[in-house]
């Protein structure tokens, strides 16, 4: 009986870790999209002379 509970506990932990890792990937993808949109917006709007010296 103890072995079955231990196996179920390990399975529950692994499922939880898998869910957290998947959520972290979705959050990383959202941050990447916002970051890329920031570069596009800065390129379209921020084309004045005062930002010219600070470009990467």
TrEMBL record:
The chain crosses the membrane at residues 28-45. The keyword Membrane applies. Keywords: Membrane, Transmembrane, Transmembrane helix. It comes from the Bacteria. This is Hydrophobic protein. It comes from Streptomyces pluripotens.
